Q: What sequence folds into this?
């Protein structure tokens, strides 16, 4: 929508022109409210289905390192046990 006084594109969130300050007409306000209701329903749907802003955090690599060492030791122990079973 455009302002009837200056022709500037109207904001999607307010009821006045950000350029000249003129109030929207009753028809424009009605359309604006409909658009705001549609936008609000879209936001509610996104919240319903779990759309969230992603926050990236640094991962703690020390626990991952120890898990790898324990996994390697367990695998080595398993190989030794299988070797002993095959040998005897």
A:
């Amino acid at each position: 929508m455009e302002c009837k006084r200056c022709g500037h594109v109207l904001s999607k969130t307010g009821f006045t022109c950000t350029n000249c300050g003129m109030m929207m007409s009753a028809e424009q306000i009605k359309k604006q409210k409909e658009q705001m209701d549609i936008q609000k329903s879209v936001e509610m749907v996104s919240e319903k289905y779990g759309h969230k802003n992603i926050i990236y955090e640094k991962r703690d690599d020390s626990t991952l390192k120890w898990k790898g060492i324990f996994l390697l030791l367990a695998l080595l122990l398993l190989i030794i046990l299988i070797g002993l079973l095959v040998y005897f």
